[in-house]
Design a protein that fits this description.
CATH topology: TIM Barrel
Strand order of the largest sheet: 7-6-5-4-3-2-1-8
Structural class: alpha/beta
Strand content: 15-25%
Helix content: 40-55%
CATH class: Alpha Beta
Shape: globular
GO molecular function, one term: pyridoxal phosphate binding
Order of helices and strands: HEHEHEHEHEHEHHEHEH
Family: Belongs to the pyridoxal phosphate-binding protein YggS/PROSC family.
Organism: SAR324 cluster bacterium
CATH architecture: Alpha-Beta Barrel
Oligomer: single chain
Distance between the termini: 13 Å
Cofactor: pyridoxal 5'-phosphate
Radius of gyration: 18 Å
Pfam family, one: Ala_racemase_N
Number of helices: 10
CATH superfamily: Alanine racemase
């Protein structure tokens, strides 16, 4: 595909996604006023990412990219330079935590107390707070990573107060596979209700030092449903970039 064709392809997809997000917002009283597009760039051609980067640069808007593998994150960080905020969204491996912390601005897939403690240690060494999302397995799918609701509550009340180099921005979830995207609506609604439950707890608000948590939920195939159920960020790859390399 020639560069001009790729540009038109990306522009068309971006316009479509943003229009669909706005329509979904208008349909639901549960939708968030502000929704961030996290462009999932794993295994995507650098040419496509550069084009998207230019579009956002011309808008004077920061581009947020999602990566799932530490090595690819490291390479993309070096290639793309400034003007990009990298979110790590893949399964965390203990031996990759150092690179994940150093090469991403946000870690969205913090799925265990052990990983949070190790990330906090890296933050101590760097003398900075590491921004994270807590991954909640809201579908209770054995194949998916993440805290269940009880463990997540325990993490916020018992573990997080001791982790001085972590800042929790929000909750993230990966739903189990549903043949019909609409079937996942109940899970997205459950995550929103769990977030609201946490935010209703004054002690947790004091620990977090914030009055609201973000919700990272929704993919290419179901992001409109996630928006209707309160997503503040949607993670979109193939609907934006096309098939992966």
């Amino acid at each position: 595909m020639e560069t001009q064709c790729i540009q038109e392809f990306i522009k068309k997809n971006l316009f479509s996604i943003e229009s669909r997000i706005k329509l979904a917002q208008s349909r639901s009283p549960n939708s968030s006023e502000s929704i961030r597009l996290l462009a999932v760039s794993k295994h995507q051609d650098l040419k496509k990412i550069n084009i998207l980067q230019d579009i956002f640069k011309n808008r004077n808007v920061l581009l947020h990219l999602g990566e799932s593998y530490a090595q690819e994150l490291k390479e993309k960080k070096k290639e793309l330079g400034e003007g990009v905020c990298f979110h790590f969204i893949g399964r965390i491996q203990k031996n990759k935590i150092r690179d994940i912390v150093r090469y991403s601005e946000v870690i969205e897939s913090v799925d265990s107390k052990e990983h949070a403690i190790l990330i906090n240690l890296e933050g101590e060494q760097l003398s900075r707070k590491i921004k994270i999302f807590v991954q909640v397995n809201i579908s209770e799918d054995e194949k998916k990573a993440g805290f269940n609701s009880d463990n997540a509550l325990n993490f916020f009340t018992k573990v997080l107060p001791e982790l001085k180099n972590i800042e929790v921005l929000g909750l993230m979830t990966m739903l189990k596979y549903y043949e019909e995207p609409e079937s996942g609506r109940k899970d997205y609604a459950a995550l929103r209700r769990f977030r609201d439950f946490l935010m209703g707890n004054e002690a947790i608000r004091k620990i977090l030092k914030r009055n609201m948590l973000e919700l990272s939920m929704g993919l290419s195939e179901d992001f409109e449903i996630a928006v209707e159920e309160g997503a503040t960020e949607v993670r979109i790859g193939t609907a934006l970039f096309g098939e992966r390399s």
